[in-house]
Design goal:
binds xanthosine-5'-monophosphate, alpha/beta, GMP Synthetase, Chain A, domain 3, 3 domains, Rossmann fold
């Protein structure tokens, strides 16, 4: 969760679409399991991710047209390694096993899986053995693919055909087209397998007979109907943070029910430059949405005065945020529903062994407690972040809003480190941050970075400006690339961009005499400084 109004943990199962075509991806704990579901959706087919040991009845209830078994970290022979339940191959629908999923399938139908000499990791050349079969027919005889496995399939049982091999995998792909069972040792979902998407597409269209039905436009139509059915003529309230999730949820709900929606922007004074104004301009002036803009800066700063402990700062902001939101909500006495920008990645159940996904507690700061008197409306609950952006674009949100980098709920407060958060420091940080954003955008790098921002450590050092010595703050530039914020690498920003940003920050922002660059990756550092 990276937005001010974040979600309580899932209250209903992720499987909410009934009566539609869908693929279920069963997660054996692989690092790319979510990516498989995303790639299937990119083929225009709805996909959901469920743990590999989900009850068979739940699968039957969901009524999928195909199953995909993901990769996983275990060796099929390891004690306690997850097994493929044979019933899953008797559902009468096509099944595609990927990596571990392929090996688990092979074991359950009587093939031979063994330790491979040294395993295969990374880019590998794949060679088709015959015509490539249904799954790979017509693709180049030799192609590159991405491997990550220690065991390999050495022989297939009767009825199965080996389709391809690689140096470390005697059987790198197989199929039994009559039973509609398919397996690939490599990862079709990662970009390093150039024909991976074509193989998934073959499986979905030719084996499972699935049509394209999933798109941003179809999500909008479907959700509009669902929102109308849920809220009827009830009043609905939505907290806006300026982030893409709450913005998209609000725009979608507004399209469904118009003036029954009231949005609340709790402006804690810790937002970036012009951010609150942009939200007001977009929602009140642009979309004509009823919007209450609560200027609560003074309240927040008063409570933050004298506090320098990071955890205390977060707690103060979190509790004050809830108080302000509740006060505003109380004025809308008829509102019974609350919109939340919960995403699929927040509710997904993982096959990695931990059960339902939990949100790190510190990321819930700025969120709302789940004992509010509201029934939740969560129109983005089925969507991955990139799909939310597509929906946002389709709904007419500006490019700037659609592609906004994540921003923490407690805002700039967690970027003033080692001292009190006060107006003077916020002004400095906000100004420096705005310059960095401008320069990053001008260099065309904004979208490529997961986040780029400034940090203000509360220490002062000596500098020289004009004829005099200065004693002022440093600004630290933090820019990272990442896929999901779990790990991140420091971005190699061009020197000329760094030079421009540094010069401008020191010259234009009074109170700063030094600019430093954070070159730590996560782990061991984190993205934010606290
Ligand atoms: P870290 O610093 O743990 O951050 O590497 C991972 C991601 O989470 C964001 N973040 C927060 N988001 N409330 C939020 O809504 C918070 O308190 C919070 N703290 C960190 C951070 O910006 C990064 O994207």
């Amino acid at each position: 969760m990276t937005e001010a109004v974040s979600a309580p943990v899932a209250s209903e199962p992720a499987t909410t679409r009934v009566g539609h075509e869908r693929v279920l991806v069963l997660d054996f704990g692989g690092q790319y399991s979510q990516l498989i579901a995303r790639r299937v959706r990119e083929c225009g087919v709805y996909a959901e991710l469920l743990p590999h040991d989900v009850a068979i009845e739940r699968i039957e209830q969901a009524g999928p047209q195909a199953l995909i078994l993901s990769g996983g970290p275990a060796s099929v022979y390891q004690p306690g390694a997850p097994k493929l339940r044979p019933e899953l191959l008797r559902l009468g629908i096509p099944v595609l096993g990927i990596c571990y999923g392929m090996q688990a399938m092979m074991l359950s139908v009587g093939g031979r899986v063994d330790r491979a000499d040294g395993g295969e990791y990374g880019r590998t050349t794949l060679t088709l053995s015959g015509d490539g079969g249904r799954l790979m027919g017509g693709l180049p005889r030799e192609q590159s693919c991405w491997m990550s496995h220690g065991d390999a399939v050495f022989a297939v049982p009767d009825g199965f055909t080996a389709l391809a091999s690689s140096p470390g995998s005697p059987v790198a792909a197989f199929e039994n087209d009559r039973r509609r069972l398919y397996g690939i040792q490599f990862h079709p979902e990662v970009v390093h397998t150039p024909h991976g998407q074509a193989i998934l597409d073959r499986f979905l269209r030719e084996s499972a007979g699935l049509r394209e039905h999933w798109s941003a436009a179809s999500v909008i139509d479907e959700q509009i109907a669902k929102i109308r059915a849920q809220v009827g003529d009830g009043e609905v309230i939505c907290g806006l943070s300026g982030g893409v999730d709450s913005a998209t949820a609000a725009a979608l709900v507004h399209r469904a029910i118009g003036d029954q929606l009231t949005c609340v922007l709790v402006d804690h004074g810790l937002l970036r430059k012009d951010e609150a104004e942009q939200v007001v301009a977009t929602f009140r002036d642009g979309f004509g949405i009823k919007l209450i803009h609560v200027d609560a800066e003074a309240r927040f700063l008063q409570r933050l005065a004298g506090q320098d402990d990071p955890e205390t700062k977060r707690k103060i902001i979190g509790s004050e945020f809830i108080r302000v939101f509740e006060e505003e909500a109380a004025k809308l006495a008829d509102a019974r529903f609350l919109v939340q920008g919960t995403l699929y990645s927040d509710v997904i159940e993982s096959g990695g062994g931990t059960g339902a996904a939990t949100i790190k507690s510190h990321h819930n700061v700025g969120g709302l407690p789940d004992d509010l008197r509201f029934e939740l409306v969560e129109p983005l609950r089925m969507l991955f972040k990139d799909e939310v952006r597509q929906v946002a674009g389709e709904l007419g949100l500006s490019e700037r809003m659609v592609w906004r980098q994540p921003f923490p709920g407690p805002g700039l407060a967690i970027r003033i480190v080692g001292g009190e958060v006060n107006r003077e420091r916020l002004e400095i940080l906000r100004g420096a941050d705005a310059i960095l954003q401008e320069e990053v955008r001008a260099a065309g790098l904004y979208r490529e970075l997961w986040q780029s921002f400034c940090v203000l450590p509360v220490v002062r050092s000596v500098g020289v400006q004009g004829d005099g010595r200065t004693y002022a703050y440093p600004i630290v530039i933090r820019a990272v690339t990442s896929d999901d914020a779990m790990t991140a690498d420091w971005a190699r920003l061009p020197y000329d961009l760094l030079e421009r940003a540094s010069n401008r920050i020191i010259n234009e922002i009074a109170g700063v005499n030094r600019v430093a660059l954070d070159i730590s990756s996560k782990p061991p550092a984190t993205i934010e400084w606290e």
